[in-house]
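Exercise: predict the fold of this chain.
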Amino acid sequence: MVEADWLPVPGGSGWHSVVLADAADAERPNTVLLRSAHAVLLVDPAGGEQRTRQIMAYLDGCGDRPVLGLLTHCHHDHWAGAGALWQRVDHWIAHEQTAAALAVAASETHARVWSGVDGDAPMVEVSLFRAVDRDGGVRHVELDRQCSIRVESQALGQGRQQLWLNGQPLCSAIALPGHTPDSVAWRIGGWLLLGDALATGPGLLLADGWSSEAQLDSLTALLGVLDEGGIEACWPGHGGRLDADECRAVVTGLRHTLGQSGQQSARAARELRLDHAFGLLEEAAVLLEQADESDQAAQAAQALHTLAAQLLLSGQPQPSAVQRLLQHLRVAATEGGDDRPLARAVRLLEAHALLLRGVTEHTPRAVDLSALLQRLARLLPLHLDLPPTVVRVRGARHRLEDGLHSLCEALVAGGAETVRISLECFGPQVALLIHAAAVGKAALPSEERLALLNHQLRLDGGHLEGAEDGQDGGIRVVLAAVG
C-alpha cells in the first residue's frame, strides 16, 4: 500500500482517507480508514481475510498514532471476520446499544443477538447516546495515557454528539435508528459515513429491531443534516459514493416508499419482499441451467430451485445456503464476459443476499440507455428504433441491463423472430416500447418473470406497465430520465 492512496477529506482539517469499497455486497461493507496527525479512525472493519490484510497494510504505515474503531451498528457484516485487527485497534467507539449487543455476541451463553452471530466480538469502551447524555452536556472518558475522549452532547432530541480526542476535534456521531435501534452515522469534515441507514423495508427479512417509524424519522433528520450544508460525500455501508444531491434524492425516495408502505399491513409488506426474493432465486436458477461451465452450475441450479420452493412454503429464507453457493460460483464467474448466464446468475444471487438485509445499490447513476440497448442487440435479434440523441436514465447498469436481457430472451424463446424496441421520452420519464415480431402469436414472459422485472425496476424509480396498446408481445417499461 502506498502513501499516495491517502486522499484529503474535503473540509476535514488535515484528515486523509482510504475507502475500501465494493459493489453492493451483503458480506463486505465499505470500510473507511481516516488519519490525522493525532489519530487513525477505522470505520466498520469487516469483510474477510483479504480485506483484513489490506487494512493491516495501511495501518502499518500510520506509525504510533492511536487507532480508534468506529462501528455504525451491531450487524455482524460490519465487524465480524476481522479478529486479527482487533489487537491493532486501541479503543472501540459505538452506540450504547451496539456495545450491549456485542457483549452478548461475545458471551458463550447467547447464540444470537441482532448481529446474528456468536463468538468473539470487539469490546466497546466509549459508549455513545447513553441515558446520562439525554439532557446534553459534556462527559469525559479516560482510556489510557494516550487517549482521553470528550463527548459533547446536544439534547438527544437532536441526536448528535461531538467527540474530541486529547482536546482535538475528532468526529461527530448522528443517531439514525431504524435499520437497527443503534444505527449511527459518523461525520468527519465533509464526509458522512452512513452505515446501513439507507437500508430500508418494507419487510427487512433478517434484521431484528427494524422500525419503519424510527427510520422515517431518521431519514427526515438526515435531510436536515444535508440541508445544513458542508457535506461533500456520503458513503453508505454498501455500494458506491453519493454526493450530497444524490444522497438527498435517495433519502427523499426512501421517505416516500416508507410512507407508502406504512399504509400497508406488515404482512402484505413482508409478502411483497418474499415474492421478490423468490423471483431472484428462480431467475438465477434458470440462468444457471443455461450456463455451460460444468456440472457445478447444474447442481447449483437444482439447489436454488429447492431453496426457492422452501422459501415459498415456509416463508423463511436460507441466507447461509445462498452464500455458500455464491462463494463457489463467484470463482467461475470471474472468467469470460459479464453478459454470460453464470455472471448474471451471480449478480441475482448477490441481489438476493442484499435484499434479505434490506440493502440495495442506491447510487442513482446515469445509465446510457442507448448504449445499453445496442450492447443487447449484439447478443439478441433486436430491432432498435432509437432517437439520434443519447438517452440517459437513472439506475444501476447491471440490474437494468440484466432485467432487459432476460425479458428479451424470454420473448425470443416464446417465438419472437425479432424484438422491436423504441423509445418515448415524456417529461421526467422514458418509456421503452418492446414488441415481439413473430409469425403467429409470441408468448409473453411468465407472470413470475414480469413480476421480478417490476420489482427490480422499482428499485430505481421505474415500473412495468405491461402490454402496449393490446399488441401481442407488447410490453411498456417506464424509467426515470436523467438530464
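Check your answer against the key: The chain has a mean pLDDT of 83.
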